Amino acid sequence: MRRTLRARICLPALMALTTVGLGSSAAGAADTGANPSPGVAASPAQYALHTSLERDLGERTAGSYLDAESGELVVTVTDAEAAAEVRATGARAELVERNMAQLTAAMDTLESKAQIAGTSWGIDPSANKVAIEADSTVSAASMAKLRSVTARLGDAVSVTRVPGAFKKEVLGGDAIYGGGYRCSAAFNVSRGTARYFLTAGHCTNAASSWSATSGGPSIGTREGTSFPTNDYGIVRYTDGSQPAGDVNLYNGSHQDITAAADAIVGQSIRKSGSSTRLTSGTVTAVNVTVNYSDGPVHNLVRTTACSAGGDSGGAHFAGSTALGIHSGSSGCTGDSGSALHQPVKEALSAYGVAVY
């Protein structure tokens, strides 16, 4: 997974930062938005129900997803009483063999016995499994070790080899600069009258002061960073600007961002990035751990969006809803990618800020 450092700044009268996205090992084709996105659209009501039911059901669920055909919210449950609770809300209940605690226990086993650089794993509630990926750098010996561990976990897990490599990729060039790197900015956020932008933590680890041009004056100062384990950071604008809270769609228009939510497996997402511009994909797994060479990052979301070098730290979104901050990708084959994002709600909570 290549987590590339890059961002895009727009400078009208003062400066408005328009958000951009993601990074990977191979360029993906730009999506102008004219073609339908894969996956299905999630509604505000489904985001809210997804969150509340998973909280209320606890260990009696193994997560929820959107049905690819009907667009219904499907909530996995392990008993009839829980199924009745789900149906009472208008969602569809699906009885499954394993609950969240059992899937989490499988991931704990992988964490303790198979933490191999170049691997990642996360929960796919539509399959009621832990979906494991191993990139091209994982050796035969390491694959044998992984297979030995997963054999003991039975059909609670699946293993897939993926092309490319989970690793950082640092680029030079225009956009926002800090410490010799460039990064994509995810979302503009606020706390009171103060304005900030969120980006990847592996970006904010690299520098405390950020500029709109190489060697130019500082536009903002880092106020927080978290990587590895998490992958988010925050920069406060110090140049007096009041940037808009929108995302660049690369077709002459922008998408206003008014809310934030946790992504749902099966839903469609879009990614805006300064390298691959606007691409789209489907959410395929949540609670994902990726084992980078410099340490694991947990609780990510896996998607099929394409990305390329220079997109890291940017925006994953659906309509006017912010979903995540790009962390990385193992690459892109044709129009199929593997972009991962850090859930934005976690970063918003950590820093006490809000999208606007």
Automatic annotation (TrEMBL):
<dbReference type="InterPro" id="IPR043504">
    <property type="entry name" value="Peptidase_S1_PA_chymotrypsin"/>
</dbReference>
<keyword id="KW-0645">Protease</keyword>
<keyword id="KW-0378">Hydrolase</keyword>
<dbReference type="InterPro" id="IPR018114">
    <property type="entry name" value="TRYPSIN_HIS"/>
</dbReference>
<protein>
    <submittedName>
        <fullName>S1 family peptidase</fullName>
    </submittedName>
</protein>
<dbReference type="Pfam" id="PF00089">
    <property type="entry name" value="Trypsin"/>
</dbReference>
<dbReference type="InterPro" id="IPR004236">
    <property type="entry name" value="Pept_S1_alpha_lytic"/>
</dbReference>
<dbReference type="InterPro" id="IPR035070">
    <property type="entry name" value="Streptogrisin_prodomain"/>
</dbReference>
<dbReference type="Pfam" id="PF02983">
    <property type="entry name" value="Pro_Al_protease"/>
</dbReference>
<feature type="signal peptide">
    <location>
        <begin position="1"/>
        <end position="29"/>
    </location>
</feature>
<keyword id="KW-0865">Zymogen</keyword>
<keyword id="KW-1015">Disulfide bond</keyword>
<comment type="similarity">
    <text>Belongs to the peptidase S1 family.</text>
</comment>
<dbReference type="InterPro" id="IPR033116">
    <property type="entry name" value="TRYPSIN_SER"/>
</dbReference>
<keyword id="KW-0732">Signal</keyword>
<dbReference type="InterPro" id="IPR001254">
    <property type="entry name" value="Trypsin_dom"/>
</dbReference>
<dbReference type="InterPro" id="IPR009003">
    <property type="entry name" value="Peptidase_S1_PA"/>
</dbReference>
<feature type="domain" description="Peptidase S1A alpha-lytic prodomain">
    <location>
        <begin position="98"/>
        <end position="153"/>
    </location>
</feature>
<dbReference type="InterPro" id="IPR001316">
    <property type="entry name" value="Pept_S1A_streptogrisin"/>
</dbReference>
<feature type="domain" description="Peptidase S1">
    <location>
        <begin position="172"/>
        <end position="347"/>
    </location>
</feature>
<keyword id="KW-0720">Serine protease</keyword>
